[in-house]
Amino acid sequence: METVAWTDEKIDALAEKVDAGFARAEVEYARTDERFKRVDERFDEVDRRFDEVNDRFDRVEGDMKDGFARMDAKFDAKFDGLQRTLLQIAGALIGTLIAGIVTLVVTLIIAV
After folding, report:
1. How far apart are CA 95 and CA 31, in angstroms?
2. What does pLDDT average to over the chain?
3. d(CA 104, CA 96)
4. What are the percentages of helix, strand and coil residues in the chain, rounded to 5?
5. What is the dihedral of CA 26, 30, 32, 34, to 10 degrees?
6. 3-class secondary structure, 92
7. Is the dihedral of CA 11, 16, 19, 21 positive or negative?
8. What span, in angstroms and rounded, lies between the C-alpha atoms of 11 and 3?
9. How many helices (H) and strands (E) are present in the chain, helices listed first?
10. Among candidates 70, 72, 68, 48, which has minimal Cα distance to 60?
11. CA distances, 18 to each of 9, 22, 30, 47 (Å)
12. Tell me: the pLDDT tens digits for 19-32?
């Protein structure tokens, strides 16, 4: 019977060690869970900051599009004026060339 009592003591001691181990594990789990909550809060803060940055980029993009639209409008107006000027110059050059050719032909005809 002494062996049975000794075995019961060993089993009780083992059960106490196991219970103590689970108690420590629960404490560590609670600490780890608290750490994960803090990490989640930090990620929430990072997400909020990224959202702010995205909003700023959206505003910058809108400002850039408006700026380019204004530049395009100014360029189109200036280009239209330049195009009209170039057409007038080209017309004058063509008229001058035709007048020169006609004058040359008339001069040759009279000289002959």
Report:
1. 93
2. 85
3. 12
4. 100, 0, 0
5. 180
6. helix
7. negative
8. 12
9. 1, 0
10. 68
11. 14, 6, 18, 42
12. 888 888 888 888 88
The amino acid sitting at 82 is L
Residue 76 has φ and ψ, to the nearest 5°, of -60, -40
Residue with tokens 């380019």: 68
Residue 55: both structure tokens together: 């909003």
Type of residue found at 84: R
Amino acid at 70: R
Coil, strand or helix at 108: helix
Q: How many residues does the chain have?
A: 112
Largest CA distance in the chain: 155
* Assessment of whether the complete model's pTM goes beyond 0.85: no
Looking at residue 2, its amino acid is E
